[in-house]
Amino acid sequence: MIKNILKGIQAYSGAFTLISKLKLWKYFFIPIIISVITATLIVFSAYGLSDNIGHFIAKVWIWDWGKETFTSISTFIGALIIFAIGLILYKHIIMGLSAPFMSPVSEKIEAYLTGTEKHHHRNTSFQEQLWRGIRINARNLIKELLITIPLLLLKFIPIVNIFSTALLIFIQAYYAGFGNMDYTLERHFKYKESIEFVRKYRGVAIGNGLVFILFLFIPIIGIILVLPLSVTAASLKTVNLLEKENRFENAIMTKP
User: Fold this and answer.
1) How far apart are CA 60 and CA 57, in angstroms?
2) What are 221-255's pLDDT values in tens digits?
3) Residue 215 contacts residue 135 (beta carbons within 8 Å)
């Protein structure tokens, strides 16, 4: 697992150079706009809702003593909850809506790495790529929320909340890497087979997603570069994994 996580992270080292070499920046224009708009809406929503959630949580403290302290802690936890859920929504929205623009990027990277322009993989339309992206990310969004919400409740338990934070980060990373890897996998696998493949290489997905999450902590530049670099890094590693398993020779020709 750790070895694969490191491989997912290391794939970023050649991402920027490859984007420029293959002249891929033009494909990221619309996804960057989607990213900026989505991030802006979520940040403003989080700012407005964090206090409300904090005061709502504080109502469970019925005693006068320690009321102010508990309210302050509740406001902080409220902001953390909004941030965590906002981050989940952000990544799945941008990855789902950007699918038709990211698939050509991963295909060009695949052609460059393998030296073959056309493999015997499935040909999908813009609409099919968009639906696949929405379907995968809607599925991941639901599963991630079901795991994340109980973990957020553990924030109220001292010491345990330290471990829950680490687990939250790894879960966020896994699903971010999942979405980035699927831009390549959608040409080779049907829906369920893609899920199985990512599970097999979950460490690579986590490694890719960890850097994805870290980028979002960089003001402005982070939300601009997060998709170009994370998708390129994921494509580089995913193609490598497909070659390792000889998937190009056994590519699936049927549509999902």
Assistant:
1) 6
2) 999 999 999 999 999 999 999 988 776 655 443 33
3) no
Sign of the CA dihedral 197, 245, 117, 4? Answer: positive
Nearest to 32 by CA among 248, 232, 222, 253: 222
Residue/partner pairs of 19-25 with CB below 8 Å, 24 or more apart:
19/228, 19/229, 19/232, 22/108, 22/109, 22/112, 24/105, 24/108, 24/109, 24/228, 24/232, 25/228
Burial of 129 (0-12, 13-18, 19+ CB in 10 A): buried
Report whether 195 contacts 155 (CB < 8 A). no
Tokens of 148: 């994340």
The backbone torsions φ and ψ at residue 115, rounded to the nearest 5 degrees and listed phi first, read: 75, 15
- For residues 228 and 136, what is the distance between their CA atoms, to the nearest angstrom? 19
Q: Would you state the pLDDT for residue 51?
A: 66
Which helix (H) or strand (E) segment is 136 a member of? helix 126-153
Q: How far is CA 119 from the centre of its chain?
A: 27
- CA-CA-CA-CA dihedral for 201, 153, 211, 100, to nearest 10: 70
What pLDDT digit, counting tens, does each position of 21-49 carry? 999 999 999 999 999 998 888 888 777 77
H helices of 12-125, where?
15-21, 29-58, 67-97, 99-114
Q: Is residue 57 within 8 Å of 67, Cβ to Cβ?
A: no
